[in-house]
Task: inverse folding
């Protein structure tokens, strides 16, 4: 096993921001083997070398930043920094320029076009879909079964995405078809981001991916045709995208529409599903927090499925979600490219440099968070959270457009699932988080036992 290097090589010249180099870079590979073998341990080792740590990804240098004020500057300074870095570039190569990936030059127009689909007034309608899909999920669960919670929650959030982005005229069968395609498509996008070569080598996985892409494109094209035929504004993302115009005043093509919607799902589905899965997994190891959550959901829901009107009366459930987003922020890293020569805390940063704002490390700074590695939902009521250093939804003009949507879905799903089921990890081994595009908990086999009001976990 490869252990992260331990020696420190930092040489701070700025009194407030320490710069350093991650030691132990290997010829040609740099630090990639550490990242591949034990990604979180490698990330955890970086703060010892500074607030800005130069890491070698192969032959490229990446500046990993975890000082909150610097992160703020990088994410809000649109003159010096733009969306870029290998991840964004490669997602664009696979899915085109959607809102979540487009460079700043296109961003304002795309954001304006889609913003109305995320307005507060629509959240109650979306919450009804979230509640119905959570019901459908638990209706399939059987006492004594073992499920992979990570897969199950992903199933939930992709179903919600399909049902909310195209809210009208889509049959259950068509929705399920699209959802199943997404289950292959979204992980497939990630595979193509890290290993583009897979698209050039015939394999069953490539066939599955291509079939899923075809199902997605045909399915969305059918829905688009139906929307166009009626001309009705359904006040959902697809209606808005149909009304949108590109920089030359032209409507989006069907292929662009498919990619735009896929990018939205890519940004919203696994981020939210990982949050729900992490929450239930962390609660399984924390009997006190679990008991408090159960007391709250029992009192508020009284056996019902959680809906939009319950949000205000689920403060502890909300704090659990906030704490999960602190410890395991799904968007654990947000990268930017310097578009011209600039400086980073007073030091020169040449145009073309890539900086990675590591939200995972910002949220775990020992100088800002008490006992940072501990899951402690209580810290949210005791005022122990430095709000400037809590940025799970990013900052500035590209701050998450789906923040309220994602929080609503996570809180409501967590409340309903925790009220109805005890989930016990099958293995005592801690989860092995996988920081891919999203910081996923990896497979989480959990045994299901039904809960009744006030019942304690099975012994
Ligand atoms: C817990 C759930 C979520 C987390 C932690 C999260 C996190 C983030 C972060 C950090 C960004 C900023 C990226 C950047 O600056 O480059 C972002 C952007 C974005 N998110 Fe989310 N997200 C979540 C849920 C959602 C949902 C549910 C949707 C859609 C339904 C969504 C859609 C987007 C889009 C479209 C962007 C790009 C916004 C823009 O550039 O204007 N996200 N998200």
Result:
């Amino acid at each position: 096993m490869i252990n992260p290097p331990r020696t420190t090589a930092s040489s701070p010249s700025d009194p407030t921001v320490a710069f350093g180099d991650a030691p132990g870079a290997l010829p040609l590979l740099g630090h990639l083997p550490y990242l591949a073998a034990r990604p979180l341990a490698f990330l955890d080792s970086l703060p010892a070398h500074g607030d800005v740590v130069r890491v070698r990804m192969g032959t490229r240098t990446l500046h990993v930043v975890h000082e909150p004020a610097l992160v703020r500057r990088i994410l809000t300074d649109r003159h010096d920094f733009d969306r870029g870095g290998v991840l964004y570039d490669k997602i664009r190569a696979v899915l085109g320029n959607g809102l979540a990936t487009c460079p700043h030059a296109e961003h304002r127009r795309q954001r304006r076009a889609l913003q109305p689909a995320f307005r507060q007034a629509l959240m109650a309608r979306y919450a009804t879909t979230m509640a119905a899909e959570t019901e459908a999920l638990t209706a399939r669960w059987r006492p004594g079964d073992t499920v992979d919670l990570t897969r199950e929650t992903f199933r939930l959030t992709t179903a919600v995405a399909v049902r909310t982005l195209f809210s009208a005229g889509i049959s259950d069968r068509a929705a399920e078809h699209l959802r199943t395609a997404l289950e292959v498509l979204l992980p497939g996008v990630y595979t193509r981001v890290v290993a583009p070569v897979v698209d050039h080598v015939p394999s069953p996985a490539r066939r599955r991916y291509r079939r899923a892409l075809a199902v997605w494109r045909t399915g969305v094209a059918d829905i688009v045709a139906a929307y166009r035929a009626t001309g009705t504004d359904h006040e959902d993302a697809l209606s808005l995208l149909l009304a949108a115009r590109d920089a030359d005043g032209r409507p989006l093509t069907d292929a662009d529409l498919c990619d735009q919607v896929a990018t939205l799902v890519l940004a919203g589905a696994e981020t939210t599903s990982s949050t729900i899965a992490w929450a239930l997994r962390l609660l399984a190891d924390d009997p006190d927090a679990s008991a408090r959550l159960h007391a709250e959901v029992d009192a508020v829901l009284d056996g019902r499925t959680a809906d939009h009107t319950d949000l205000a009366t689920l403060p502890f459930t909300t704090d659990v979600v906030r704490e999960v987003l602190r410890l395991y922020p799904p968007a654990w890293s947000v990268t930017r490219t310097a578009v011209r020569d600039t400086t980073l805390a007073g030091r020169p940063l040449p145009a073309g440099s890539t900086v990675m704002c590591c939200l995972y490390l910002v949220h775990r700074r020992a100088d800002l968070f008490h006992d940072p590695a501990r899951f402690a939902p209580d810290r949210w009521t005791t005022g122990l959270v430095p709000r400037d250093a809590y940025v799970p939804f990013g900052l500035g003009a590209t701050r998450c457009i789906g923040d309220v949507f994602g929080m609503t879905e996570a809180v409501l799903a967590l409340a309903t699932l925790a009220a109805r089921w005890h989930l016990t990890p099958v293995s005592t081994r801690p989860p092995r988080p996988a920081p891919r595009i999203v910081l996923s908990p990896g497979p989480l086999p959990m045994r299901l036992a039904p809960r009744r009001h006030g019942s304690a976990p099975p012994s």
